[in-house]
Each structure stands twice: as structure tokens, then as C-alpha cells.
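ENTRY TYPE: paired fold submission
RECORD: A
CONTENT: sequence, then C-alpha cells
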Amino acid sequence: MSRLIAFLRAINVGGHTVTMESLRRHFEALGFQDVETFIASGNVIFTSESKNAGAVERKIESRLHATLGFEVRTFVRTDAELGAIARYQPFAPSRVQSARAFCVGFLGAPLDASAKKMLLSLQTEDDSLHAHGREVYWLSRNSQGESKFSNALLEKKLRVSSTFRGVNTVQKLAAKYGR
């Protein structure tokens, strides 16, 4: 059995409210085991016999769309991938310490060269961006709400779906569930 972590995009925004208990039941109905949620922002930890993350993502998205009535993009990582994401250091520690926001964006696939170039064009004096694997790392001197960069901007310009989590959340998840 593989331990997996699902990062759900916009599970409780736009007038939708899904309790974490309800979310656990949906995952259990899909046959996943050891289902837990981590803070009420769409982070679900579970075990699965499937090692195909793409198939697991599609299975979750299909179930949630059918039962909730709206699309919930899902990004699945293994516990080993989560550990590597949490340990990865794309920015100098001194820059991270002085930043007001440091987030990881989860993508469905790595960015190609053209998309990486577009991503870098979105950088500002206050916002630094870095792509690595299926993640985008965003460091800002401003809070997320004050920044010119956003998940919506990333999705619009790069034509990809994503969901962001604060690095602190990712590190806490990795400390509890990562390898």
C-alpha cells in the first residue's frame, strides 16, 4: 500500500462548504484506507493499492464532481515526493527569512521550457518564482493578498491548473507523513 497525499484545489471557496468529515467519507467510498485530513484546506492523506498517481487523481476528481456537483482539481503526491518537496530549497535561506510569503504550487505535470520561460516572466521585484518537478515555488516580500502574483494569474498565463500551500503547511505535512 502506498501512502498518498491529495492537495485539493478550491474545495471550500466560491460558496461551497465541504466538511473534512464528509471529505474523508468520499475518500473511503473510493476504497482508500487510513484516510485523514490535515487542516481544513483540502489536504487528504490516505493509503491506496494503486501506484498510478494520475489514475488516483482522476478517480478522486470524478467522485467529487459527481457527488459535490462542482469540479475539484486534485494533485496527488507520494509520501516520498512530499518529503523531497519539503526539503527542496530553491531560494537562499536569508531571502526566505525576510519573505512574508513562501508557497508551493502543485501542478499536474512538470512545466515545459516555454511554460518555465512564461513563469519567470511573471516575476516582479517582490515576487520570485522557481519551477522544479511538478511544483512551482513562490517567494514574496509581500503577503499573498498584497502580491501581484496569484494562482489565478499562473493558471491564466500558463494554461495549467494548480493549487498552492504555504511552505509551513507542506513542512508540517512532511514531518508527519513524509519520507
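RECORD: B
CONTENT: sequence, then C-alpha cells
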Amino acid sequence: MPGTLSETGKRQTAELSHKVESLDIDVVLSSDLKRCTDTYAILKSHVPSLPEIITTTLLRERGWGSATGMIVDSVTRIKIPSDAESIPAIRSRAQVFLDFVGSTYPDKNVLAISHGLFCRFIQSVLYNKDISEISRMSNAEIREIII
């Protein structure tokens, strides 16, 4: 934390701006972590009509406890430490986020900028499915959901 976007991430976000430009976005909610706010800044530079960003800790990635800051890639995995945010806590936070969006922004198109795992938990809660049933997300991927 707070994390930074790689050059690849910056390029992927710039490419994503073409899709974002075609959407009718009323509200932009974002994790307050730097890589998400940087994602917004890149999108805004390509799509000036985007609404101003509203940051929230609800959209943060999983709290990794003592593993925070460790580099984990597709080859190296770590044992999840006991002080990491629990699966029930992540699911609860996803439900709180969905309730917040539904009650605060009814009938609005919300662009949520978050992290892949947490976005999958949002979908898991919304569709009442196990997280294993929600496919992994690619970097700079948009999935449309209706609350």
C-alpha cells in the first residue's frame, strides 16, 4: 500500500478510456489507494466529461495484514496470515458497498474503480455465488452489474 500502476497498467487504463467514453457515467466511486486514484486520473485525462472522483475505503482490496507490501506474482504464493481480512469480513464489506450504492445512487450509472479480488466479492454477494464461481478479472476490465 498504497501501490502504484506499472507502465503496463497505465497503458491498459489509457486503452480502457475508449470504452469508458462510450458509457453514460453519473458517479465515479474509487478505492482511496493510489493505484485506483491514478487509474481515475488517466481515465479523466482521456475522458474529461467523467464526473469528479469520490473515494471510499469500502472499495479497497483485501486487507492483507502482515503480508501488506509483499510482492506476490503468478508463480509465488504466500500463506495468508492470520491477521489478514477474513472472507466473511470481505463479503460483509461488499454487501455494505452494494447497499450504499443502491441507497445513495438509485437509478444512477456508477463507475466503481477497485481491485480485482474485491470486485469479484461484490459480484459474489450480488449474485449469491461462491467467490470461486466468479471468474478472475483482467486488469482494466469493466463488468456491468445491475443493483
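NOTES ON RECORD B: The radius of gyration is 15 Å. Residues 87-104 form the longest helix (18 residues).
STATUS: closed
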